[in-house]
Each structure stands twice: as structure tokens, then as C-alpha cells.
Amino acid sequence: MDNSSHTQKNVVAMSNYRPHSGFAPLSIVEAYWDALRAGREMPKRAEINPRGIESALEYAFILERVAPGVARMRIAGSHLHDLMGMEARGMPLTAFFEHDYCVQVAGLLEEVFQTPAAADVLMTSSSSLGRPALEARIVLLPLKSDLGDVSRILGCMVSKGIRPKRLGVSSLQKA
Predict the structure, then answer these.
(1) Region for residue 22 given its phi and psi (left: phi exceeds 0; alpha: psi -120 to 50; beta: otherwise)
(2) H-type helices in the chain, by residue range?
(3) What is the pLDDT of residues 3-17, one digit of tens each?
(4) Cβ(165)–Cβ(97) under 8 Å?
(5) C-alpha distances in Å from residue 29, one per residue of 1, 48, 128
(6) Which of 17, 65, 93, 171 is most solvent-facing, going by the fewest CB within 10 Å?
(7) Which residues make beta-bridge pairs with 121?
């Protein structure tokens, strides 16, 4: 076999390789939302079609604003049920978080509804005896109602590992 054509130019350095982060469903939902808005500030809730995010449905959810800083899950994928250890539909988003972070999450929800702005949150749980720390990410994407107000959020939450545990906030990014 002739290896004379192999030069330094066609050798890939594996030291730069980053394995799959495990958060691909977030990108799918975000790309779908971005495509739907088509240059507008945000899409309408009525435009959301589950087929558009079929490969991320188990991680997806839709929140409904019920009071300032409070949003409950209208629709929740099976990953969220597994993460909570019970039915997530009807629960407030803050139910996933440790008590110390609920005010911060409520403030973030209100910003997403009022600004409106998309948000990306990195979350972790503390480790305990025999249970390693859990890492998770969530994206929150505002949606307009038919009346023109922002009362819904399309979201996606992915965790590395599944075990019922409340999460803390590591970082917040708003777009």
C-alpha cells in the first residue's frame, strides 16, 4: 500500500476532538424556534408543530404563565417526568430547582415573558452518598399568543443522567 500521498495536511489531530456534549436536543429545539420566527422577534404558539422537533420531544415542554414569575408546564416530555420522578405536567418550572434558586428562576421567567428574550441555563445538583452530581441545561424560548402577548414558552431540558433530584443554577445566559 502506497502511503506517499499521506502528508501532515490530511492528518487530523485527535487532541482537538470534543465528544458529543449530550445536549443535542437543545440545539434542535432552538433551531426549530429560530426557523419559525423567520426574522420576527418570536413565533406564535399556534405555529409550534411537534413533528418539527420529533427527535427532541421527550426533552421538550411548553410553559404557560399563570402569575408574575410563575409558569406551569402545559406539555412535558417523558425525560422531564423521569427527572422529576413523577408527572411533570401541571407543575411549576421551579419544582425542578432547589429552594434557594426558585427566586432566581422566577426572575428569569419574568424576563423571558416581559423582555421577551431567550434564555439558556446551566444547572447542577450537589453530589450525595453514592450519587454523583447531575448536570443539566435548559433553554427557554418565548412564544406569542394569538392575542399578541407573550404567555407561553417553548423549552427544552436535558440532563446527563436521570434520577429525581432538585437542581441549582450554575450560569444564566439571555439572548
Answers:
(1) left
(2) 24-37, 78-84, 102-114
(3) 555 444 444 444 443
(4) no
(5) 47, 11, 32
(6) 17
(7) 138, 172
